[in-house]
Amino acid sequence: MLNKLINFSCQLIIPVIAIGSLSFSATVMANNGWNPVIPYNPPGVVLNLKKKNIGLVRTGSYLVNAIGNCNSCHVAPTKTTPPSSSVYSSGDPFKGEVAVIDFARYLGGGRIFGAIAAKPATATTPEVIAFKGYTADNLRPDISGKPAGLTKDEFINVMRTGKDPHDATRIIQVMPWPVYQNLSTTDLKAMYEYFRALPTASPLTP
């Protein structure tokens, strides 16, 4: 009888603890602070955890923010002239300042790498053919909820093969996919789940 009472008591207590934890994490997110449930998620970056795998989002946040530093390349450039690719809205950690991630531009894409302007041949130099370069994708979900407009399998394929999702004949030269391809499938799914938890954003072109 005592064992039955203990088991029944545990069944009553566990849901209360779970509800309390969920309430706490929701409050922290509302205050835009570091969310202890989702470590390494930058302050100001509010996540939508509804119908998300919280365990995968946690791992994904670690991989995206603490290991991959994806925002350093996929941050949307500012509309200033010249455009800035700084990831911060204020503060510079290299100057000992408290840095704040620019949430509006976080992982919004649009930064251009490797563009080359055309130059005619001269007596001493060959012709240079223009190259439009690579534009970093917006990694936040589109209106259908797909990060970068990619399904999970498409995202994993890009990370494994480096093939440009917009042109499968072209290999992306500026993303370190040869390193990322060594991540486990579970880790790549975790990154995708973290991206899924972000709000949508339109890329800001320079």
UniProtKB/TrEMBL annotation:
Domain Cytochrome c: 55-199
Record GO terms (molecular function): electron transfer activity; heme binding; metal ion binding
Alphabetically ordered keywords of this record: Heme, Iron, Metal-binding, Signal
Signal sequence bounds: 1-30
Record's protein name: Cytochrome c domain-containing protein
Organism the protein comes from: Crenothrix polyspora
Classification lineage: Bacteria, Pseudomonadati, Pseudomonadota, Gammaproteobacteria, Methylococcales
